[in-house]
Amino acid sequence: MRAFFTCVFAILFLLSCNYKSQTADVVFHNAQIIDCDGMDTEMAVSGGIAVKDGRIIAIGPSQAIRNSFKADEFIDLKQAFIYPGFIDAHSHFLGYALNKTKVDLVGTTSYKEVLDRIVAFTGSNNASSDSLDWIIGRGWDQNDWQYSSYPTRHELDSLFPNCPVAVRRIDGHALLANKKALELAGIFDLVQIEGSYIEGGEIILFPDGTPSGVLVDEAANLVLDAIPDANPKTKRHALIEAQKDLFAAGLTSVTDAGLDVSDIKLISDLHSSGDLKIRVIAMASGTQPNLDSAFAKGPWRTDRLIAESIKFYMDGALGSRGAALLAPYSDRPDFSGYLIQDSASYRKALSTAYDLGFQVCTHGIGDKAVRHILNEYNAVLGGTNDKRWRIEHSQVVTTEDLPLYASASIIPSIQPTHATSDMYWACERLGKGRIRRAYRYEDLKNILGMVPLGTDFPIESIEPLKTFYAATIRKDSEGYPENGYYMDQALSRNSALLGMTVWASIANRTEAETGSIEVGKWADFVVLDRNLLKVSEDQVLNSHIIKTVVAGSIVYSNGKY
């Protein structure tokens, strides 16, 4: 960066002989710039940035920038710190937006609290946003309760005998439904025919063989498919409102990991109308209708939308024991999870995606699922490449499988806050030996020399600062555990910042446009009150987002939009 600034300074010095010889739309000056344009990000350099038509046209010392440009606006940042706009490499933007219209069950500490929130919600909202017949919610986690067993439907049946209720677990891979919802989804009839297990999922039963109300992975989808979809008007409003939360967190780009093609089109329309400004990297969900539509259209992108990825699921989640493991769960010795994908269909889809130039991203949490994805990817990719196919989460990975990432240039996409959320119960699930093969972020980073970071919101908080903290300090927001969680797998602060910026853009195939502060790239950046690379541990989460800028326009400033 020093050499770059020296070059820029020389150019601008010459230009300054012709005072105000160039025009810009806006000049940000008197800032400390951390550009992330290389591997060494630790130096913050005082300077300014000139922006025209949404792109960076000059970077250099503040006075030289001010002397060289006429601009409609000069913004004095008072020595605050400019970073490239934070990029969430794995999230669920639309899901987060729609969750704000449903029962919020995040943070509930007992099943009674879940029930109380549902009852309170029905009093103020009458039901879900689009149908008075369904009550929908998300966010419960039995692992946070005193008794960590799954809840059952009996209480819901008593409270709502005639209204269908379906509330998803925090990870989205299990749900609790009442009798009415199960009847509408045909679950009772299915159990009579198929029993408790279906391909890629499980219907949890009472001892008498009837459904308990809890359904895991593909079984949960049977109920979800029966719920009326939110109408486009509801989705549009929800996305526009949710965007405010993202900007307040310093996000300028988000990757939505699994959307229907119709919803990708809706996001594109919102971009075209100017209502949605945040950049979206949209993965099309790998259902057959979506595959047919995406493959027919081919990869496509606009200034603010990248739609050239397909998202598959290979297994479920650890929290609901749906993750596919090579050996049984330590706390359920008769069960090792399940693979969701049909191998023949999956291989065929991978081959088509490869031929059409799509990026493939597959959810893989358990070591069995990760191994299967690695083998399938290697078979199709055939060696090192620049396709940038990804394994989302890569949560449990055997040491012997690590080389399979490198052999086909496969990117592990990770979400550091999962480690600090799961640490309270993960060892119980995996056992003391296998836990050391989980959440191994430094090992995964070393495979390709980079690793993209995300949050998986709304499963976790949307805040990139918590991602940074969990990746480097390996504690939760309460400061637990005192010495960090398996600190040999902590990322350096330099790596964590790169993972939230330029490495995320590389994983999204957008590094030519975003991820660093460089001339020619979009003027997407976030302004903070301190240097994340230098402040003490206890000050990281106390950092404040001063401004968020997308294409040179301030979309958030000191609490205002």
Give a brief outline of the structure.
This protein has 561 residues and is α/β, with parallel strands linked by helices.
What tags apply to this protein structure?
8-stranded mixed β-sheet; 561 residues; alpha/beta; 20 helices; Diaminopimelate Epimerase, Chain A, domain 1; TIM Barrel; disordered N terminus
Topology readout:
Layout: H1 2-15, E1 22-33, E2 45-52, E3 55-60, H2 62-68, E4 69-76, E5 81-84, E6 86-91, H3 93-99, E7 103-104, H4 111-125, E8 135-140, H5 154-159, E9 165-169, E10 174-177, H6 179-184, H7 187-194, E11 197-198, E12 201-205, E13 211-217, H8 218-224, H9 232-248, E14 251-259, H10 261-273, E15 279-285, H11 288-297, E16 300-301, E17 305-313, H12 343-356, E18 359-364, H13 367-381, E19 390-393, H14 402-407, E20 411-413, H15 417-422, H16 426-430, H17 441-448, H18 464-472, H19 493-499, H20 502-507, E21 525-528, E22 545-550, E23 553-557
Parallel strand pairs: 1-4, 1-5, 6-14, 7-8, 8-9, 14-15, 15-17, 17-18, 18-19, 19-20
Antiparallel strand pairs: 1-2, 2-3, 5-21, 9-10, 10-13, 11-12, 12-13, 16-17, 21-22, 22-23
Helix pairs in contact: 1-2, 3-9, 12-13
Structure description:
With about 550 residues, the chain is an alpha/beta fold. Strands 1, 2, 3, 4, 5, 21, 22 and 23 form an eight-stranded mixed β-sheet that branches. Strands 6, 14, 15, 16, 17, 18, 19 and 20 form an eight-stranded mixed β-sheet that branches. The longest helix has 17 residues, at about 230-250. The chain folds into three domains: about 1-80, Urease, subunit C, domain 1 (Roll), CATH 2.30.40.10; about 100-225, Diaminopimelate Epimerase, Chain A, domain 1 (Roll), CATH 3.10.310.70; about 230-550, Metal-dependent hydrolases (TIM Barrel, Alpha-Beta Barrel), CATH 3.20.20. It is built from 20 helices and 23 strands. Helix 5 (about 155-160) links the parallel strand 8 (about 135-140) and strand 9. Helix 1 runs parallel beside helix 2, helix 3 (about 95-100) crosses helix 9 and helix 12 (about 345-355) packs across helix 13 (about 365-380).
